[in-house]
Design a protein that fits this description.
mainly alpha
Length: about 550
């Protein structure tokens, strides 16, 4: 790998100077209440909402992991990156219900729709899940990126990035997060797109690359007998995970809730969906390019997760290499900032405020800042643990999410689409779902020490996509059966919070919140998603 030169460092320094300037501008604005600190005063426009949604999603674990999937014969993982259509579901289906309820967090919505028990369990589980998945994976990927690009050791790079990101998140709150993410999204897109174009030139174009790796490699649809990625379970499970992640997870939805009104929020999600189409071309394809060059003996890397940084350092010219390095650092920082702020929001609004309802607004903001500091410290503690992770990072992340998503997706979907679903059904499903998820993760970890003929080994050995699909069906049946066996929820828990109970006044408000342009762009996005699915079929 080539090391960064003077022009590269100038580009990186320039990026950080602009970032610091934005952070200072935001910090100077008063943030005296929770709406200001956690939701940027609910006064953000659609462009910033969409860019923030995209930047929150595309962290360094995507850049490193998705390119690694492209380089490591894991092309079916691409299906998780063409979920722009699920982002549209957030704006067109879920967001109006969230906006009408006036909530800050997703657990708070569950309390309004069901009861306090569902809120408690989702709050605590979400914080634990963020620490175990998002924070840990992002820091590990960041360590890979920083050490590979800047020529410094893993620890120094990871620590400095975590601390710097934590600093502006603590002081600036959500407003600092969404505006810095907008800058980071632009830099990352420009840099990665440039790398894709130069990379395709280097391999002699798309057709030349296909000849080297063979067309079969570019097939995301494997037969049902495939041990790793059978196409039907892949399609079902990726949709379940997609609805959980894009439509019910605090990490993403919080960005849409910062919008000044439902119209700006929906347009932000449409813009976010449009941006979500790009990772296929600017992150996954560079991984395939890196594999092509390796097969031709023109590039060398040890692990697929190193494909993107190695390709970048060898192909890009001086200065531009530094800008893309800044973009990768931006991806790491935007992901960390998002998860830090989301954890802080969940703890302050759903746990601390619930226990101490009369706490003044200023003290709640201070509590949120302290919570962020604690999460930053936990993230640092996780660094040595995550340094031991091996294998393709992106696949690891999708596996864990495939076990977390089914119970939450089932409860939110049925809670919005079926007014008969009650608090008892939601609570039992969340509890049972999280126990099953933990059980499966443990079995997968200890599978090697189990009897191959035993039932526990067989449960732990079921393909993770197939397991998740059946697990989701179990959760759906459980929430319906428990709800029907217990009393129907009162009207206060369903009015305007489920389909079929929306008042005429709310319906008319909803109709004025979009126009033909919003519908047209949404249809265009669906067409592009369909085209990508057909294009990557190995022919």
């Amino acid at each position: 790998m080539k090391t960064l030169d003077t022009f590269d460092w100038i580009a990186i320094a320039g990026y950080f100077m602009v970032l610091v300037g934005i952070a200072i501008w935001i910090i100077r604005k008063k943030q005296e209440n929770t709406e200001d600190y956690f939701l940027a005063g609910r006064n953000v426009g659609w462009f910033v909402v969409g860019a923030s949604i995209f930047a929150s999603n595309i962290g360094s674990e995507h850049v490193v992991g998705l390119a690694g999937a492209g380089a490591g014969n894991k092309l079916p993982m691409l299906i998780y990156e063409i979920q722009a259509w699920v982002v549209l579901i957030l704006g067109w289906v879920f967001l109006p219900f969230y906006a009408r309820s006036g909530v800050f967090t997703m657990p708070e919505f569950l309390e309004k729709r069901f009861d306090a028990r569902s809120r408690w369990i989702l709050s605590v589980f979400s914080i634990i899940a963020y620490v175990l998945t998002k924070i840990s994976v992002t820091i590990y990927a960041g360590g890979v990126v920083v050490s590979a690009l800047l020529g410094i050791d893993f620890w120094t790079g990871a620590l400095s990035t975590v601390i710097l990101t934590g600093l502006y998140t603590v002081v600036g709150g959500m407003r600092a997060v969404v505006y810095t993410e907008t800058l980071q999204a632009i830099i990352l897109l420009l840099g990665a797109a440039t790398l894709t174009v130069i990379g395709l030139e280097q391999v002699g174009g798309w057709e030349s690359m296909r000849e080297t790796i063979t067309p079969e490699y570019l097939n995301m649809w494997r037969p049902l007998s495939d041990p790793d990625f059978p196409w039907l379970p892949l399609l079902i499970t990726s949709t379940i995970v997609g609805v959980w992640y894009w439509c019910t997870d605090q990490y993403i939805v919080q960005r849409a809730l910062t919008a000044r009104n439902i119209k700006e929020g929906r347009r932000g999600t449409i813009f976010g969906a449009l941006l979500k189409l790009l990772p296929v071309f600017i992150f996954l394809i560079p991984g395939v390019i890196a594999l092509t060059l390796k097969m031709r003996g023109e590039l060398e890397w040890d692990s697929p997760d190193q494909a993107f940084p190695v390709l970048m350092s060898n192909l890009l010219p001086s200065g531009l290499r530094g800008l893309v390095a800044a973009g990768l650092l931006a991806a790491l920082m935007s992901s960390l900032a998002s998860v830090f702020n989301s954890c802080s929001t969940l703890f302050t609004v759903d746990i601390y405020k619930k226990l101490r309802p009369n706490t003044p607004e200023k003290k709640l903001v201070r509590t949120g800042q302290i919570a962020t500091v604690i999460v930053v410290i936990i993230g640092i503690i996780w660094i040595p643990i995550m340094a031991n992770i091996s294998g393709v990072l992106y696949e690891y992340l999708q596996k864990v999410q495939s076990y977390i998503a089914p119970p939450i997706t089932a409860v939110f979907l049925l809670g919005i689409f079926h007014k008969r679903i009650n608090g008892q059904g939601a609570f039992i499903t969340l509890i049972a779902g999280f126990i099953v998820a933990a059980f499966r993760i443990v079995l997968e970890l200890v599978k090697g020490s189990l009897d191959p003929d035993g039932i526990l080994y067989k449960i732990g050995d079921v393909n993770f996509l197939t397991f998740s699909a059946w697990f989701f069906l179990f959760c759906i049946l459980l929430v319906i059966i428990v709800s029907l066996m217990s009393p129907a929820p009162p009207a206060i828990k369903t009015d305007n919070l489920t389909f079929g109970t929306i008042s005429e006044e709310e319906k008319s408000k909803s109709k004025t919140s979009y126009n033909w342009k919003d519908i047209l762009v949404s249809i265009l996005i669906l067409i592009i998603v369909g085209w990508v699915m057909l294009f990557f079929n190995g022919k």
